[in-house]
Amino acid sequence: MSAELNGLLAWQNQSNTTPQDIYYLLATDTLMGQATADIISQWLKNQGYQCQIINSSGLRTSQLASFREALTGLARQLIEIIDGYKTSGYQIYFNLTGGFKSLNGFLQAIASIYADQAFYLFEGSSELLFIPQLPFKLDSKVIEKNLVAFRRLVNDLAIQPEQLAQIPDSLLFDLAGQTILSEWGELLWLSQKNALYSEKLQESISGKIIFMPEFYDSIKAMPNHLIPKLNTTIDQLAVFAENPNNPNLRSLDAKPLKEQQYRDKGYWECDIDGNHYRIFMIKEGDSFKLQKAGEALHKSKSTI
Predict the structure, then answer these.
(1) Which CATH number does 3-131 carry?
(2) Where's the CRISPR system ring nuclease SSO1393-like domain (predicted)?
(3) How many other β-carbons are positioned within 10 Å of the β-carbon of residue 230?
(4) How many other CB atoms are found less than 10 A from the CB of residue 257?
C-alpha cells in the first residue's frame, strides 16, 4: 500500500472516526500524484466517507517557478476551505505522510497555524508521529506597515518599486517580470486579512477610489459584521476601476442607477453583501467618488 494510505489507516485506528468526517486529498500535478489521489479517494468512498480531491496546476518539482506559483494559489485555496469548516465546528487534521518534501514543509507551516493536529507515519513503522503545534509566528507588523502594497499585490494591481522597499524579499516573487506575493507572503497575508479587514474601514488602495466625507459618516451606521465585506468590495472596485476591460465581478455588480434623478448625476452602485447593502458613488471618468454605504434603495425606501 502507499505511504499516504498507510498513514491514513494508522490515524483511523487511533481516532474516533465517523461518517461525518470529510477528507480532502491534495494531488500533485503528476501522473503518480493524480493516480494515488484517485485510488485513495475511491477507497475512502467505498468505506462510506466523503472525499474530495484538490488539484493544483503546476504543483510539481520540475520547475521551481511554477511550483512556487502553485503553492501561492494552494495556500489561498486551503485556508478558504479550512476557515469554512472551522466556522462549522470541525476539527482539522493534516496527514503529512508521503508527497514532496518541499511541499510537506510548506503544509507543516500551514498546519502549525490552522490545524488542530498534524501527523505523519514514522518510517518503517506503523506508528504515527504527531507534530506539536510549534510557535510558528508570522510577523503581522510588516503587513500593517505596508497594507496598501499587500492589498494591491493580492489583487494583481500594478505597484511601484518604492512600495516594495519595506517588504522582505522572502515574501515576494518575480513571475515573468511581474512582482507577486510569494507562497510565504500569501500565507502571511491570509493569516492576517480577516483581523485587519474586521478592524475598521481601511484606506483606499487606488487613486481612482475616493472616499467622500459623507461616506465615512454612513459607515458608522453599518453592522460590524459587514466591515470585512465592505473592505473586500472596495478592493474589487479598485480592480474594476483600474482595469476597465476586465469582467465586472458578479459579486461586485457595479452598475449605473436606473432612476433618472440619479442617472443624470452619474450615480452608480455596487453590492457589498449580495443582498441588502450597497455602496453608492458618483462616476467621474474612470474614477469613483464613494458617497454612501447603506441599504439598497428598494429595501430602505430612502434616498442617497
Answers:
(1) 3.40.50.10770
(2) 1-134
(3) 20
(4) 19
Q: What's this model's pTM, rounded to 2 decimal places?
A: 0.74
Q: Report the alpha-carbon angle 243-247-251, nearest 5.
A: 110
What is the pLDDT at residue 137?
59
**What values do phi and psi take at 56, rounded to 5?**
-135, 110
pLDDT of residue 138: 64
Q: Any bridge partners for residue 27, and if so which?
A: 55
Q: Which residues of 244-253 are buried (b: 16+ CB within 10 A; e: fewer)?
A: eeeeeeeebe
Residue boundaries of the structural domains of the chain: 3-131, 137-199, 201-303
Q: Of 78, 8, 11, whose CA–CA distance to 36 is shortest?
A: 8
Q: What span, in angstroms and rounded, lies between the C-alpha atoms of 117 and 111?
A: 7
pLDDT tens profile 105-142: 889 888 988 899 999 887 767 788 887 765 555 677 89
Amino acid of residue 5: L
Place of cell 511550483: 67
Which segment of 30-34, 63-67, 138-142 scores lowest on mean pLDDT? Answer: 138-142
Q: What is the CATH number of domain 201-303?
A: 3.30.2310.20
Q: The C-alpha cell of 201 is what?
A: 474601514
Measure the CA–CA gap between 292 and 304, rounded to whole angstroms: 7
Neighbours of 200 (CB within 10 A): 11
Write the DSSP symbol of residue 60: S
